[in-house]
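User: structure tokens for this one?
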Amino acid sequence: MSRSRSIISALALAAALPLAAGCGAGDNSAPSATSGSGVTDTCTGTIAVMAPYGDRGGDDGSTMNWARVALDKFNNDRGTAFTILPLPVNNNPAQGVKAARKIASSQVAVGMVGPKSSGVTLAIGPILDRAGIAWVSPSATRTDLANGQFKGFHRVVPDDSIQGSTIGDFIAGPLGGGKVVIVHNPEPYSEGLAASITRSLAAEGITPTAQLVAPVAGRNYRPVISRIPRDTQVVVIPFFNPSDADLFVRQLRATGRNPKIIAGDAVFMPSEFTQPGTYVSSFTPDLRKTKAGAEVIRLYQEIFGDFSPFGGPAYAAMTSIADAALRSCKDGEATRAGVAAALATTNLPSRLLGNPIQFTPDGNLKNGRFHMYRITGSDYIALD
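Assistant:
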């Protein structure tokens, strides 16, 4: 699950108003959509986005921002009039439950993008299911979210069983195996990924020398680092926060040790995780270095001025919901039931993600894969 620096203020997102045609998507002259009733008309509906505003406390605003850009372009291209209901939730399950109850108690939202984290997803899933709301997360990768417990859950990124296998294969192959230590945070994403990596290593005949727990948002990792054997060859840090991972690596290297270090997808943030020589996994190609990514980044920068390299999943998640809403539109309006049914047959090209957007019956992305990168100088270099 990716993170980014704050971009915009809460005032810019406080009202759930139709998105203006202002992202460089051209004028608003696209033809009207054809509704399910066969009448040519503009389709309306509100799509909730459960993500941080990015205005306070260093919260990541990129998910909300990219979702807005995606819906803006969709409305312009398809002649729809969908609107956004912003729900300010970061990685706080209690906030997520409060927001989920808000949209569940009304019929305003026909579907939802988000949440960002696996922990919030676990907390809100039962509430959204009872309300008949389908949702698409851009970054919740914990494997068991799609084990059948949530009928409305979908995601446009592969799960941590795939990430764990990718990292395990990378350790056993290119890195040559050796003595491995896994250091994780005590929260659902980090714990789940650590477990997946451990299983993958076991399949390769490698047993981690130790599994250590580091505090979330810690400032002093030295007590944990002191427990890492000095002959460790590989340290895996599936941390949730990129700045914390960066601090951990700096404090580890300050001890004079320099093992190979691998971080998970949550810390793929070139502005925050900057340690040369470290490896990082990612659930999409680096948008900065693809033609399709450059086109969407241009739209994003026209409004927000900066971008998150991994905003592509948020863009894809919103496009998936909007497409389902349009395909299920009847008499000019989308419905919750219609969106939930239409998501099952989603089939969208997505050059941003590197593969089409299609969902398995349990809501996983079909044929998703992770990529490995190495930080060289100040850049992230793809290894595949």
